[in-house]
Amino acid sequence: MEVASIAVSSPMFGTSRTKLSDCFFVPIRRRKTIIDRKFLFNSTNDFSNRSSIDLKIRAVHLDEVAADKPESLAGLVKDVNWPSPSDEIPFWKRKFHTHDANPEIPVNIEKDSDLLHVIHVTAEMAPIAKVGGLGDVVTGLARACLLRGHKVDIMLPFYECIQKDNIQELSLVSTYNSYYDGKWIQTNAYRGLVSDIPVILIEPMNQFFKGEDVYGGSYNELEAYLFFSRACLEWMQVTGTQPDVIHVHEWQTGALPLLYWDMYCYLSLQKPRIVLTIHNMEHYGECRQEQLNKCGLDGSLYATIDKAIDDRTIGHNPERLSLLKGAIVYSNSVVTVSPTYLKETLCSGWLASALLTNRDKYHGILNGIDAVMWNPASDVFLPANYHAHNTDGKEVCKQYLQRGLGLAYEGRVPLIVCISRLVAQKGLHLIKHAISHIEKHGGQMIVLGKAPDGRVQGEFEALANLHNKGSTIRILLMYSEELSHMLYAGADMVLVPSIYEPCGLAQMIGMRYGSVPIVRKTGGLADTVFDMDDQSQPEMANGFVFEGIDEGSLSQALDRAFSYYKEKPIEWAKIVQKVMQIDNSWNKTASKYIDVYNSIRVRG
Ligand code: ADP
User: What residues line ligand 1, using a CB cutoff of 6 Å?
Assistant: First the structure.
């Protein structure tokens, strides 16, 4: 590429010449964009002092008025293939050039000098096997560590529902046998790359992991993950792979630390140390002793208070084990996903006593977001790209959604999105209340969610039937990675009204896309969103926060956000720019995990 300097045209800063060395080249197949590096990750630009800010408060039909708009907006609008609800193929199912939101990798990350080999063992990985935040976290953390020079692999089950064409260089690397329930099961291990991250996919020759979805197949899930935990160690054993760290996640891989310390380290694995990340304490992996026996351990040996017994079942018949508790006891280090959730888990819930006993190895590290997957400046799923210095593309994204879903697009109306698994934790009554409150107060709302519970799904279907006919509310009961990107981009606000939230990614992703968060003050939401009206720390203010779990508390937060949006449009535009520049990426927080890895690794 032979460009010595480029013209960066921004309606906010006019046209300036920028040296190539200051630029970050983000080539994507659809279009080529050159973005000033400082637009991408940092939070150092203070817009509040710039007198030249051209705060455009736009509304209405972008295509009709484009001729009056600055060059860049007219150009963006000209390219857009506007969708409509009557399209044969819904706009989020159109062909994209790649399944990756952004297949390009940053090149400017500083490398670490003391390098590690980490293998994640996990039930989810974004985007090929993602149900919620676990998948995002594994991919984002793995990428951040790879970019810093570490060797990272992700081991996950080869679910039947994984689309093979989303894995590059997929090849069968070994066939081996792994023990399960008195038999040795023939097992295939495949290697490949997902979004440039090395993966090892474990495929047993039995019914495990078959089905249309990651979870909920017709096999016994607990037993499938017990098999998987052992099959990963068995693969390391037969291939002589000895990473510095095996990083397990959630209850699904909770048996691995037990298997490692009580079985495999007496065989040939000695070097690895184990890190457990708890993403959500609600799921603790209830397991009967005879089920644990099936992976080759003696379940009765773990039924003690200092090992894996579920304390609540002591004296009951039968007593139960908890794979999560066992993993807390047997891992060298335990991490949960935000400092506030760490405090919450130490003082509530039945696992608190196990965590207190293991307090010296228990850490709270705030999740990050994968700044490669989630980047409005180069996201291939968006009809127009944008960044904090020029948010024209965001307006296009909003109107694209409104048109595609049949929402009104006249006037300046706040659009709120809620993208969530529809489970009790997420504040279902508050999501329902938001729908009616927003409709009544002249806003628009789009809910994108899926309920694993049929009763909840039915309730939301009834709501969808009631509200989806009008031009202000859309309740979309499905999972769509592509649509979620478009919603974060097109929204003015993102709602996360969780009853509890270990970390929460939706508020962080929303901010990266310039959508202002409205959240309940709990867990990681309390660590990342600070109220606009909190005078004690105005420099931190980046959203709207409420505390109660009652509908009135939510209504007040929505009303405050609406009046900011409607009555203070200039301030609103500044908030949008500010939240886009907050660095919540893994590039910032991965070092804390690397410190944990280094603190337990065995050298030599
Ligand atoms: P949790 O892990 O409890 O589900 P998080 O906020 O940590 O919650 O992460 C949720 C992730 O799942 C986000 O990336 C969010 O965009 C995504 N997500 C949730 N529901 C859907 C859906 N229906 N379609 C697409 N993405 C979804």
Answer: 132-134, 136, 419-421, 448-450, 479-481, 484, 503-506
Determine the Cα angle at 20 with ends 19 and 24, to 5°.
Answer: 120
C-alpha torsion angle, residues 187, 190, 194, 196 (rounded to 10): 140
Which protein residue's CA is at the shortest distance from atom 12 of ligand 1? 132
How close are the terminal C-alpha atoms of the chain, in Å? 44
Please tell me the residue having the least CA distance from ligand 1 atom 14. 133
Q: Among 139, 421, 488, name the best residue to mutate to test ligand 1's pocket (greatest count of ligand atoms within 8 A of Cβ).
A: 421
The predicted-structure confidence for 102-130, as pLDDT tens digits, reads as follows: 656 666 788 999 999 999 999 999 999 99
The β-bridge partners of 192 are 199
Chain center to CA of 258: 28
- Per the listing, tokens 């790359």 go with 193
Sequence-distant (6+) residues with CB within 8 A of 501 are: 341, 425, 519, 520, 522, 523, 524, 525
Q: What is the pLDDT of residue 97?
A: 74
Beta strands of 373-472 (E only): which ranges?
Answer: 415-421, 444-450
In ligand 1, the atom with minimum distance to the C-alpha of 488 is 16
Ligand 1 centroid to 504 CA: how many Å? 8
Strands 362-364 and 333-336: parallel
DSSP one-letter code for 263: T
Residue in 125, 282, 419, 513 to alter for ligand 1 test, most ligand atoms within 8 A of Cβ: 419
Output the CA 229–ligand 1 centroid distance in Å: 25
Task: Give the residue, by CA position, lying nearest to ligand 1 atom 17.
Answer: 132
Tokens of 417: 């999105």
- Predicted structure pTM score: 0.88
Q: Which helix (H) or strand (E) holds 398?
A: helix 392-405
User: Position 97: which residue type?
Assistant: H
Short-list 533, 552, 551, CA closest to 543: 533
Structure tokens at 351: 């696992």
Q: Are strands 197-204 and 151-157 parallel, antiparallel or unpaired?
A: parallel
More confident residue, 293 or 65: 293
Q: Which residues contact 217 (CB under 8 A, 6 or more apart)?
A: 160, 209, 210, 211, 224
Distance (angstroms) between ligand 1 centre and the Cα of 559 equals 25
Ligand 1 center–CA 374 separation, angstroms: 13
Ligand 1 midpoint to CA 131 (Å) = 7
pLDDT for residue 49 is more than 50: no
Residue 105: the pLDDT is: 65
Q: How many angstroms does the Cα of residue 603 sit away from the middle of ligand 1?
A: 38
Tell me: pLDDT of 45 over 60. Answer: no
Give the chain's mean pLDDT: 89
Mutate to test the pocket of ligand 1, among 278, 484, 494 (most ligand atoms within 8 A of CB): 484
The amino acid sitting at 302 is Y
> Which backbone phi and psi does 513 adopt, to 5 degrees?
-100, 10
- The b-or-e profile of 157-194 (16+ CB within 10 A means b, else e) is bbbeebeeebbeebeeeeebebbbeeeebebebbbbeb
Q: How far is the CA of 480 from the centre of ligand 1 (A)?
A: 10
Distance from the CA of 1 to the center of ligand 1, in angstroms?
38
Tell me what pLDDT residue 604 has. Answer: 74
